[in-house]
Amino acid sequence: MGKKNKQFVEKITAMEEDFAQWYTDVVKQAELVDYGSVRGTMIIKPYGHAIWENIRNELDRKIKETGHSNVSFPLFIPESLLQKEKDHVEGFAPEVAWVTHGGDEELAERLAVRPTSEVLFCEYYSKNIHSYRDLPMLYNQWANVVRWEKTTRPFLRSLEFYWQEGHTAHATDEDAAEETRKMLDVYTDVVENYLAIPVLRGRKTEKEKFAGAKYTLTIESLMHDGKALQSGTSHHLGTSFAENFDITYLDENGKSQYVHQTSWGVTTRLIGALIMVHGDNRGLVIPPRIAPIQAMIVPIAQHKEGVLDKAYALRDRLTEIVRVDIDDSDKMPGWKFNEYEMKGIPVRIEMGPKDIEKEQVVLVRRDTLEKEFVSLSELETRLPKLLEEIQQNLYDKALAHQKEMTSVATNMEEFKETLENKGGFIKAMWCGDIACEEKIKEETTATSRCIPFEQEKVADTCVCCGKEAKELVYWAKAY
Ligand SMILES: [Zn+2]
Question: Is the pTM value of this prediction over 0.90?
């Protein structure tokens, strides 16, 4: 096949050559997105959307399993409402899109297109929470939000994106803390066990936390190019929103108390992570558990009598156990091989006249491109097992990469040298002073990713100022 068919598939830039261009080529060639007519917006195409749906379905199931209900809140936020929490509005102000007119009429008050919906939920909670019996209130919404970003890239940073945002209200600080951690665990589960992406877990520094939160917990993952990507955050909001929005309840003694709140979200960014963690120079590699199509049947010499009939019969048989499809178009098999490698479909099933004669098929796994011959009678046992092997292999490979790309630095010279020559995560001690954090960012462009739950002591002194260290921080250049 090789040469002759290559012309049918447009080439993508090698990731070693230009990682950013490779990413752009893959999202386009794998037909995940197209650009919207407003700069920085994206059209998520059917294949990209099917991936998002699988992520969403899994997460939605777990959000409901943990006791939350889905709701839909409005797209617009009155300016006066948005400004009620000072830190919060300052955090978002530069990115807010405003509606000033309804038809020809200028509005008496500007309306923000939601950048996030904390304040809408707060207003609702202030009206609907009265007694300790109303708590906890556990809501989630699947929605689109708008943030007027200056530089944009599909999935990673776009003017409008899709996400879920959880908003909960609790009687006590401990209950809110438990919720914050619980939802981080849910995110960890989905990202590690379904997207096959290992994560670092920890707390954000004061500088990097969500505007208005008491603290922010985060999962951070490492991309193939050694840059980090924040993959999900869960915020303990404390009582600051409750104080500003007057969200109180009467406790069991009839005493008025402020509620303790949380919010948490993951976005279509996760698709960006998926691309940059598992993809290669042939395109996407989708972990089987979230792959819209887990196995693609490509008939060989399909014009020969009986081949297509057998291939359809095979599809009907496998529909029971995996998400399977068949390409019976008149394109060359070589074109189809390239196309489904580009789309990252975990397994390709080849079936031609010779295979039919021998009552076998050829399975080609996308992650390693290894081929194996499997007799038709064993396919029902072998195929699901192979999919699990691929799932595990993708996770193991990503974890090995993350470990290999994690270094220790004890002074700024080491820090800069490692970041320059190797990239990845840098573990370094920190004194806790924001001045050091800012200096590191200024001198290296690396930001603090998280203060890991699992603390180690890699040195006694702060990597930046040399004063006594308080805690270990993971640093990296990030998307
Ligand atoms: Zn310091």
Answer: yes
